[in-house]
Structure formats: C-alpha cells, structure tokens
Design goal:
about 30% helix, about 180 residues, single chain, four-stranded antiparallel sheet, 10 strands, alpha+beta
Length: about 180
Amino acid sequence: MYDHETEKFGLCRNSDLIEELGQIDFVFSDKTGTLTQNKMIFKKCTVLNTIFGDPLTPDEAMAEDMVQSSKARISDYIFNKSNEQISRKLKDFFTMLAVCHTCMVEKDPKNMSVLKYSASSPDELALVQGAKSVGIEYVKRTSTNITISLNPIKQEEDYEVICEFPFDSTRKRMSLIVKHL
C-alpha cells in the first residue's frame, strides 16, 4: 500500500495479523468520503425559486473561478439590496448557515486575524465556509451565544442559544432555536 499524498508506504506492526486474515469471512466497509475525499465546497443554492451560483464545468480551474465570481454576485444581492425581497431572504439563508451548526472556531496562532473552523462533518464545514465566502462570517460561540459578522458592512450580530436539538438518526437533522439580540 502506498499513499500518494503523504508519499509513505503502509507498515505492518503486528505479525499475528497474517494468521488472523485467513479466518475472516466478511469485510464491511464504510465508503463515505471515497468519491468526495471529504472535500466539500459550497457551490450554489436556491432561494425564492432562483438558483444562485453557476453550474459546474468539466474544467476544474474554470469551475473554481466561476464559483468565486458567483459568490461575489450573491454578496452583491445581499448587501446592495437592489431587490429587497431577495436581499432579505438571501441574508436570512446565509445567516442560518452561519448560525445553525456544531462547528468550532478558533483564531489561527500564526495570524490572529484569521479564523480556523473545525467540524465533525465536512458538509457542516462547507456550509459555514459558504456563508463566510458571501460575507456572513461565523466569529464566536459560547455556551449561550453565537456571534456572526456581516463583513461588507462591518457589523456584528449576536444570537442567544435558547435550545439545541442535536442530530439524531430518527430526525436526520439538528435544530437550533436562537433569539436575535
């Protein structure tokens, strides 16, 4: 076995393993992340029956440029308020992405102005980073409050956490009830 990313070979640390391999009847494997490599990127969304973002293209570099330009257009819709109804709904949508999650945030020790996010799942992380890319940034969380920053207008908003319903396999979602302060 060889991992091209780390450029290292697999190493067997137990000689009993070879004898035990012959006794295996079934192998079960979780393939989550195999196709995506656990690298998720927020590409587009639909708000008020309008798709925001560009369709994917076969050329990876071109697709990334298109995604960046579409995020700039979403930010224009949110903060320039050319259409008040779309502006309000987009702001609400991305605010919910920036507030309703279980991600943790910390300041980068090398550059204190940069925030680093960590999450238990790559999809949650992609949604928080998607909100950040359009100008609504998750800044801080305590046990009772969540703070986001509306970057283009340099304004912070605080939300009081009233109740959190963690993800479970029955509901297949997590929910957060907050109050805007």
